[in-house]
Write a structure and sequence with these properties.
The protein has 419 residues and is of the alpha/beta class. The protein has helices spanning 12-23, 37-45, 97-109, 128-136, 155-165, 179-186, 191-206, 228-234, 263-273, 338-341, 352-366, 377-394, 403-408, and strands at 64-68, 114-118, 145-150, 169-173, 212-219, 241-246, 278-280, 288-292, 299-303, 316-319, 324-326, 334-336. Bound molecules: S-adenosylmethionine and iron/sulfur cluster (2 copies).
């Protein structure tokens, strides 16, 4: 008769975290009652140190994960992808919904508190709402924020069910308030649909929905710098934060320094009309520097990756649509989590049925019905994944290269990274 199998993991904290990740997948989780105040106090008292796997060699703790859930998009923005498009991965190379959910729960078990779904355009993934619903179930496990970066074209159709699924924030990309200019910058139509999405979010907010809305606007010289003031003025009576992003170089986007408008230049443009523009204290891990015009409801932010990097407080990791962990947006180091994940499924994509089968094996092993020697199971696989993740995070550079070197760096086009 086989006895219970002792944990194979090298450290017990890790082993406990692993148990949380696998067994609490939907279908296996017991109902978790809301924690009482004394429970919460107890939890704070006994809080574990932040996962070593997600802490890099500069002591940065990565509690924010961006997952790209598709490589496809319904727009073709000039700054994001080459005109001829990008070669897409074969469907079998892309992460399935159970795989995305599995990785999300693994990262949450290690201390990730915020997940952002991005792409490509995440709303074109047909099962984005069920995916959000399942990731939403990670809230009792420590997920605080579930956010989306989207171009807003089809968001208005799915927004209500997303909010029900636990969506807490939307970063909506819009680079112009002029429908003709929209067509030039995105090489497609759709301005009215984007505005419909913005209006619906604002309407839901007035009805009590707790959704943070930020509008992301990439500023390119000769293209849309004259839109800076109208965007700032959107915030006069709308509760929106408009964030101006310095144009960054990525594979195939024909970046030149001359086309980039710096943070300082943007400030000068705004101050020429609103000299009273003033800076507002932000959160430690904010990527943007926040400002306000006194009397305006909205805020103005700047993402200054090129002239004033914020790498020192970086807390972000990315998973690409084809399942690579990318520890830095401006670094081309990637490791495949997908290949490791699929080892127990002969290298094939893990669909729901395969996911249930593997879970059952793991349950049997935990119950002592199978031994470690005969079946590898997910406990072992998770340990391997965490080792790979931990090693990649430890290799993360302190900061990105200088502008000149970044321009030459071979990197994916932004559409295949997920911003
Ligand atoms: N399709 C979604 C969207 O547009 O919001 C999500 C993916 S998109 C790649 C994520 C963000 O990256 C967008 O806010 C977009 O403006 C930004 N982005 C893309 N290329 C960029 C570039 N070259 N420089 C700065 N930001 C860029
Ligand atoms: Fe698509 Fe977003 Fe890239 Fe525009 S920025 S092409 S919407 S992925
Ligand atoms: Fe983080 Fe890399 Fe971006 Fe710097 S460049 S903020 S290290 S992701």
């Amino acid at each position: 008769m086989r006895g219970k199998v002792a944990p194979t993991c090298r450290n017990l904290t890790t082993s406990r975290r692993i148990a949380t990740a696998t067994l609490d997948a939907p279908g296996l989780a017991s109902d978790v009652p809301p924690p009482s105040i004394s429970h919460r106090k107890d939890a704070i008292k006994h809080a574990k140190p932040f996962s070593a796997f997600l802490t890099d060699s500069f002591d940065r703790q990565h509690d924010y994960l961006r997952i790209s859930i598709t490589e496809r998009c319904n727009l073709r923005c000039l700054y994001c992808m080459p005109e001829e498009g990008v070669p897409l991965s074969p469907p079998a190379h892309l992460l399935t919904t159970p795989e995305i959910f599995y990785l999300a729960s693994l990262f949450v078990s290690q201390g990730v508190t915020k997940i952002r779904l991005t792409g490509g355009e995440p709303t074109v993934r047909h099962d984005i709402v069920p995916l959000m619903q399942s990731i939403g179930t990670l809230r009792p496990k420590g997920l605080h924020e579930l956010a989306l970066t989207t171009n807003g074209i089809s968001l208005h159709r799915k927004l209500d069910s997303m909010v029900e699924a636990g969506l807490t924030g939307v970063n909506l990309s819009l680079d112009t308030l002029d429908p003709f200019q929209f067509q030039i910058m995105t090489r497609r139509n759709g301005f009215d649909a984007v505005m419909r999405s913005i209006d619906r979010i604002l309407e839901m907010k007035t009805l009590g929905a707790d959704i943070k809305l930020k509008v992301n606007c990439v500023v390119m010289r000769g293209m849309n710098e004259r839109e800076i003031i109208p965007f700032v003025e959107m915030g006069r009576d709308k509760d929106i934060e408009v964030r101006f992003i310095e144009y960054m170089p990525f594979g195939g986007n024909k970046w030149t320094q001359g086309k980039m408008i710096s943070f300082q230049e943007m400030l000068d443009i705004i101050r020429s009309k609103y000299p009273e523009l003033r800076s507002v204290r932000g959160h430690r891990n904010d990527t943007s520097k926040t400002y306000e015009v006194p009397g305006f409801v909205g805020k103005v932010g700047f993402i200054t990756s090129m002239t004033n990097d914020f790498c020192g407080t970086c807390n972000r990791l990315r998973i690409t649509g084809d399942g690579n962990l990318k520890v830095c947006l401006h670094g081309n180091a990637e490791v495949s989590l997908r290949d490791l994940l699929r080892k127990d499924n002969n290298g094939d994509p893990i669909d729901q049925a395969a996911f249930e089968r593997i879970k059952q094996i793991e349950m049997d092993r935990r119950e002592g019905r199978l031994s470690d020697e005969t079946i590898l199971g997910w406990g072992q696989r998770e340990q391997e994944l965490l080792q790979v993740i931990g090693a990649a995070v430890k290799r993360k550079a302190e900061k990105h290269a200088d502008m000149g070197d970044l321009e030459k760096l071979e990197n994916r086009p932004m559409i295949l990274i997920g911003g």
